[in-house]
Amino acid sequence: MSLDKATVRRIATLARIEVPDADLEATAAQLSGILSWIEQLSEVDTSNVAPMSGGIDMESISTKPRWREDKVTDGGQTEKVLANAPDPQDGGFFGVPKVVE
Amino acid sequence: MTDLTSLTIAAARDQLAKKEFTALELTEAHLAAMDKAKDLNAFIVTTPEIARERAKAADARLQSGKAGALEGIPLGIKDLFCTEGVQTTAASHILEGFKPPYESTVSQKLRDAGSVMLGKLNLDEFAMGSSNMTSYFGKVKSPWKAKGRSDDLVPGGSSGGSAASVSACLAMGATGTDTGGSIRQPAAFCGIVGVKPTYGRCSRWGIVAFASSLDQAGPMTRTVRDAAIMLKVMCGHDPKDSTSAPLSVPDFEAVLKQGVKGLRIGIPKEYRPDGLNAEVAALWDQGIQWLRDAGATTIDISLPHTKSALPTYYIVAPAEASSNLARYDGVRFGQRVEGKTLDEMYAKTRAAGFGTEVKRRILIGTYVLSAGYYDAYYLKAQKVRALIARDFNEAFEKCDAILTPTAPTAAFGLNDKQDDPVAMYLNDVFTVPASLAGIPGASVPAGLNKDGLPLGLQVLTKRWDEETMFRVCQVLEDAAQFPLLKGAR
Predict the structure, then answer these.
(1) A55/B351 touch (CB, cutoff 8 Å), yes or no
(2) What is the tens place of the pLDDT at every residue in B418-438?
(3) pLDDT at residue B218 tops 80
(4) Is there a catalytic annotation at residue B182?
(5) What share of chain A is helix, strand, coil (3-state, %, to 5)?
(6) What pLDDT shows up at residue B156?
(7) Active-site residue B78, yes or no?
């Protein structure tokens, strides 16, 4: 699989990472190298195999994820929540660039 | 007086109980050693005030007979664990200055057991790497050197600061995390013990997430006994992590003397590819002989999908990382680079905040999850992962434990050219399969190569059977008589 510059630009937009035009070609080459190495998986026969979607192997499951009781266990810590924010706002808000005109 | 920093956790625990020295003296000895070894760059942040304060509190509890399991033991904490009020960065610029208002479950358990935090240990950025070369806060040097040479070596990664600090006797033990080998490979490179428990043994709550279905915390220590002591404290059910297992915690230390008589040890043929490093292969053979001498039987087994494990991992892990790292958006915590619009702010913040390898993995992850490619890559990888797990399940019907090398080579040079990401990924070829299957694995230092550098052997067992893993590890450690640095033992 070989990625072109337009595809890299599209992925970078989806990932919200700015990639300068000058770097697109080199990035495309590197990602293509990794993807062509990954392609070897297509040789593995996976017909009738259920996907393993977590760290727990569903075929020999020994613990199942459990529901916990649906009740409030924490909260009312606005100051702590905002303590690390780059642009905390009075009244308990995260500041962001203007979104609505 | 002997050098306090070269003691094992087990010895220090017993001598503290007998009041042969104080916890504060033990902590001061480590703080002094850390000061002298600053050039290793093992710590991102040191916390001497916290260490002294906790050591004094430990002394008070030792006096009053209320000592915890790790009372007064000085430990390093990988900078991937959130620590209350102490900067936690995951070795990334994007989290520089972040001070969590809470403590991770694992580091809280270590605190509650009386241990003393010395500081936050360096790592590959977001735990993505096998060399500790991707940290924003600089590379970590291994305390080991090749015979007759002065050039610096990598400590391995991602838990490179943890491995270097424990090996150099700057800390008695350290926390690590392992997603594809990040505890076991650096332990092998630095000649220490590293244990990745079963997925679900340790709570992931408060650990900066890389790949949630693979990440596990574990101990890194100089002896098998010390790892058993530390792991017992670190694991246990936590309602705050839905994948944490509601199982009781065995007394791992109690099984160490049981030996391996009668155990069946599987030797997987796929871990001996053509061109396997001859010294690694010879050490593996030696390990097989040690276990036979101790009364185990060995049998040849096959794990047919081994070859597919690395490419599977490099779909699953980046896919999960691309989702997990979406939270670093310059809004709630960490660094921000201003932009005219919200999207521009996100894109500039993430471009400036993440390093090259992290960006590469986010882009790969985004691609394999994107519309039109999900089935071909991500779903396919999840199916191959199921086959890899099945291989282990079938193998453990025939054997009780599996023995393999930990890494394909010894540590490489800190300044070696690293321009091929795939070549670097191959470091984890022997550790990744167990991560995908969620089974426990440990690396034990087993010998030196002709350059005098450590090599490790890996022990794998079935899910939740860390006890058998520890028994095999103890026999290997006893047989190997590995020469720890600073004469530690």
Answers:
(1) no
(2) 777 787 888 899 999 999 999
(3) yes
(4) yes
(5) 40, 5, 55
(6) 96
(7) yes
Total number of domains in chain B: 1
Q: Give me the mean pLDDT over the A32-59 stretch.
A: 87
Judged by CB atoms closer than 8 Å, whether chains meet at B315 and A96 is answered as no
Question: Where does the pLDDT of residue A65 fall: very low under 50, low under 70, confident under 90, or very high at 90 and above?
Answer: low
Place of tokens 């030996």: B259
The domain that holds B65 is classified in CATH as: 3.90.1300.10
Locate B35 and state its tokens: 């000061």
Q: Could you state, in order of their start, the residue ranges of all structural domains in chain A?
A: 1-29
Contact predicate B320/B442, CB 8 Å = no
Q: C-alpha B423: how far from its chain's center?
A: 21
Annotation says B115 is catalytic: no
B80 in any annotated domain: yes
ipTM above 0.85, yes or no: yes
Q: Which of B216, B243, B383 sits opposite A65 (nearest CB)?
A: B243
Max CA distance (Å), chain B: 70
**Residue B128: partners with Cβ closer than 8 Å, 6 or more residues away:** B134, B158, B210, B321, B357, B358, B361
The model's pLDDT over B284-342, given as tens digits with 9 standing for 90+, comes to: 999 999 999 999 999 999 999 999 999 999 999 999 999 999 999 999 999 999 999 99
B311 and A50 within 8 Å at the Cβ level: the answer is: no
Q: Which residues pair with B221 in a beta bridge?
A: B173, B193
What's the mean pLDDT in B395-412? 97
Strands B74-78 and B173-178: parallel
Size of interface A-B (CB pairs under 8 A): 176
What does the block give as tokens for B392?
């282990």
d(Cα B451, Cα B444) in Å, to the nearest integer? 19
Locate the chain B residue with the closest alpha carbon to A13.
Answer: B347
The predicted structure's pLDDT at residue A59: 42
Q: Which domain holds residue B32?
A: 4-258+407-487
Strand B441-448 to B454-461 pairing: antiparallel
Does residue B252 sit within a domain?
A: yes
Q: Would residue B323 count as lying in a domain?
A: no
pLDDT value for A61: 44
Q: By C-alpha distance, which of B127, B123, B158, B157 is closest to B137?
A: B123
